[in-house]
Structure formats: structure tokens, C-alpha cells
Write a structure and sequence with these properties.
Rossmann fold, alpha/beta, six-stranded parallel sheet, 2 domains, about 280 residues, about 15% strand
Length: about 280
């Protein structure tokens, strides 16, 4: 390995999300790639992205990407399904020398590998479901797949409030999942795989699994994205071999609230004083 590639491998990974949900991806990256330095940027001033136009989301993503590029990252992870659905290709074009990874493609790939009968469910926010990014990605890999998609935006609020389990949470989960469960029961082959198509949703994984039963495989886009990043860095000889990497946090608003909500999604310590407040809107989009 050349000196140049050694230096490149020591650069951090940038992780971008509209808020706190992407911390589930950060958590998996830290778990699967403990030697990597990670920089997380949450655009908390403009969350949620799900109600914004594709044009606005792409502009925000460009601004965030430039902020992280200025920190000399080696790879950018778009830890947001809304951003991944509309902005991966524009960013790859705008940043041809940077590896850009979204969460949709790894999640779709994992669901196609996990399903036994080709009947796959997708739950996400309303914008991700209506964009049909997961549906397209799954059908590209498996044209014969049967896909049921359901918006479960209420899960975002549950996750952020720390309501992850218990009877009430399971009742809400069951109510939200009832359309996709009914559609599956009316089909010839029942759904055997469900994609958690929002980075908030892994926080509710145990409750979702209890409602659906153990026969339905849950595909966590955070886990699959981290595995994909690990493979990509290994293939490019860009793995950082240090024993333990550092994690930095940046937000565009409300570092105190970010620190308060972070433990719902991230297992490490997040102190308000260690969170950098940044302005990314001065970048053109």
C-alpha cells in the first residue's frame, strides 16, 4: 500500500442526516468499523425533510456534503432515506472523487437476499413511500417481487420520544401496520420480509417484530448500510486500522435537544458541549 493510500485511509467518514434518526446508521458504523473516525452532521434547523420538495432536499444535501467535504472526508454516507431517495445521483455527479453511499440500495439488496418467497414489505415515511425508491430498487434486483409499502410516519415521533416498547407502543405499531398486514394476508404468499425504510425505525424493531411475529425477517437499513460501507472500504483498501476511532457531532440548531434525544438512537456518549453548531446554508446549492 502506498503512502498516499495510507493517508487516505486515515481520513474520516462523513455521515449526514436531516436530524437525529441517522444516528442509528452512525451507531452501526461505529460497531462494525470501530477504527474509523466519524463525523456526523444533523441538519436539525430544517428537519423534517419528508415534507420538502426534491429540489429543496437536493439543495440541502449539497450544502451538507460541502460542509463535510471541507472536513476532508473519504466517504459520505447519506443516513436519511428521503435524501437517499432523491440526492444520491446528483451528489455522485457533483462529487466524482468522493464515495457517496445512501441507505436505500443496501436495504433493497438485503431484502432481496432475505426473502424466501419474494413478498417484501416496506415501511417508511410518507415521502419515501410516495417516491417509490425502495420499490424501484427491489424490482431492479427481483422483477418478480411482490411489494407492499406503508407510510408509518408516527413511528418517527415514537422513536424520538423514547417510546420503543410496552403495550401502548405495540398497540400503535399494530394499528399503523394493519394495512400492510391485511394486504399480505389477502395475497397468495404472505409477506416474509419487511424493510425498515426509515433510520428512526430500528429503535422500534423489537415492538415491530412482536407485532408481526418471528417468521417475518426485518431488514434494518442501518445495519445493511454499515456492512456495505465496510465492504466498500475494504475493497478500496481504505479501512482505518487504528484500534478506536473518534466521533464528532455537528448540528445546525439545538445542540441541547440533539444531545437529549441522541441516546434513543446512539449507544455512545453525546455531550451538548461537544456538539459543534454550524451554518451550512451559506453554501450554494
Amino acid at each position: 500500500m502506498s503512502a498516499a493510500s495510507i493517508d487516505e485511509s486515515k481520513k474520516p467518514i462523513g455521515v449526514f442526516d436531516s436530524g437525529v434518526g441517522g444516528l442509528t446508521v452512525l451507531n452501526e458504523l461505529k460497531k462494525q468499523l470501530p477504527g474509523e473516525d466519524l463525523i456526523y452532521l444533523g441538519d436539525t434547523a430544517r428537519v423534517p425533510y419528508g415534507t420538502k420538495s426534491a429540489l429543496s432536499v437536493t439543495r440541502y444535501a449539497r450544502q451538507a456534503a460541502q460542509t463535510l467535504v471541507d472536513r476532508d472526508i473519504k466517504l459520505l454516507v447519506l443516513a436519511c432515506n428521503t435524501v437517499s431517495a432523491v440526492a444520491v445521483e446528483p451528489l455522485q455527479v457533483a462529487l466524482p472523487n468522493l464515495l457517496v453511499v445512501g441507505v436505500v440500495e443496501p436495504g433493497a439488496e438485503a431484502s432481496c437476499k432475505a426473502t424466501r418467497n419474494g413478498h417484501i414489505g416496506v415501511i417508511a415515511t410518507e415521502s419515501t413511500v410516495s417516491n417509490q425508491a425502495y420499490q424501484r430498487a427491489i424490482l431492479t434486483r427481483r422483477p418478480d417481487a411482490t411489494i407492499q409499502a406503508q407510510a408509518c410516519s408516527l413511528f418517527v415521533a415514537l422513536a424520538e420520544e423514547g417510546w420503543h416498547d410496552g403495550d401502548l407502543v405495540e398497540q400503535i405499531v399494530a394499528k399503523c401496520l394493519s394495512p400492510i398486514i391485511k394486504a399480505s394476508s389477502n395475497s397468495l404468499t404472505g409477506m416474509d420480509t419487511l424493510v425498515l425504510g426509515c433510520t428512526h425505525f430500528p429503535a422500534l424493531k423489537a415492538s415491530i417484530s412482536r407485532v408481526l411475529g418471528g417468521d417475518v425477517a426485518l431488514v434494518d437499513s442501518a445495519e445493511t448500510t454499515a456492512r456495505y460501507v465496510a465492504g466498500l472500504l475494504s475493497d478500496r483498501a481504505l479501512l482505518n486500522e487504528q484500534s478506536e476511532g473518534q466521533v464528532q457531532f455537528m448540528v445546525t440548531d439545538g445542540p441541547e435537544r440533539f444531545a437529549r434525544v441522541a441516546p434513543c438512537f446512539f449507544s455512545g456518549s453525546v455531550e451538548p458541549s461537544a456538539i459543534e453548531l454550524v451554518d451550512i446554508q451559506h453554501f450554494g446549492g
